[in-house]
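Appendix C: a fully annotated inverse folding record. The material below is reproduced so that readers can follow the format used throughout the book. The structure is listed first as tokens, followed by the designed sequence.
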């Protein structure tokens, strides 16, 4: 997958549209030749395999299957994703463990700190449409 920085706030990944259903477009991102030299390749997720699929919402329906496109990602989206996927659940779990361990037995506090993640991820599931609008990914014709 060819990837380049268009400016200091965005990345561009090239891919081919594999499926279009309604306003949802599935793009297969090509193998990235620049991932080997990238300092963030361990956390990116795109460099893990040769091809990745990404689902993009596109309301104007001007794309066709097997068309080559550019997927534009803002760097701030990665920071937001790390916040919601890792930092908030870790903080919630750790705070629950510290607070409950002073009140309850150790094994109950540990179990409670793990169970507190269940409502968090259920809440994320119910707000998935809100997150789709927050994590907006652009697609451009090449």
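Designed amino acids, in order:
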């Amino acid at each position: 997958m060819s990837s380049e920085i268009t400016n200091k706030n965005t990345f561009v990944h090239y891919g081919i549209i594999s499926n279009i259903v309604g306003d949802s477009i599935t793009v297969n991102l090509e193998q990235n030749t620049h991932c080997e030299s990238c300092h963030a390749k361990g956390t990116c997720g795109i460099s893990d395999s040769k091809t990745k699929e990404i689902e993009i919402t596109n309301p104007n329906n001007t794309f066709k299957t097997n068309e080559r496109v550019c997927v534009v990602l803002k760097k701030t989206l990665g920071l937001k994703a790390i916040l919601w996927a890792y930092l908030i659940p870790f903080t919630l779990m750790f705070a629950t463990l510290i607070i409950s361990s002073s009140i309850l037995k150790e094994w109950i506090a540990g179990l409670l700190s793990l169970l507190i993640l269940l409502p968090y991820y259920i809440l994320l599931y119910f707000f998935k449409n809100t997150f789709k609008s927050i994590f907006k990914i652009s697609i451009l014709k090449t």
